[in-house]
Amino acid sequence: MSQLISRLRVQMNRLNSKQKMKVVYIGVLICIFNCFSVFSQEVISTQGETYSNASANIDFTIGETVIHTVSDGSNELTQGFHQTTWIFLGIEDFSQEVQINLYPNPSVDVITIESSEYKEHLFEMFDSGGKLVLQGELVAEKTHIKGMDLAPGNYALTIRKEGRVLKTFKLLKSY
Known about the structure:
This protein is of the alpha+beta class and 175 residues long. It has helices at residues 2-14, 17-39; strands spanning 48-52, 57-61, 64-71, 76-82, 90-93, 100-103, 111-115, 121-127, 132-137, 142-145, 153-161, 164-173.
């Protein structure tokens, strides 16, 4: 190490003042990038979990797909990419004989459920964590749900009759 430092000093003495300033700037930039690289190992996620026991640790985040894992026996590196867009729109149709429409999707404040068969039909809305946030009964061929004062995010709206799921709409509540 001391030989390396002495060689660097000899090389620095050979440079003019402009060249020395360039070397100093490059050194400062390298130091700055090294400081930021310490934080590059951190993942900030709204959802995920850590599980551990005597033999293993598992850490995961929702929305990050693993594409490659490398190990040298004592260290493990897992590479992935974060999915910034989660598309959560769609319909799961459990009953082909019942026609039910939901619009607009995405929605800002009011959604409309349209069905010619609405009697004894119930709706339930769940957030992306599975918590029931809204429920009610279809009262007409076009039932307007005005209780959309929910936080922006992804929701699932299920239509049921006599306990049987007819359709599940995946919808997006926007700002």
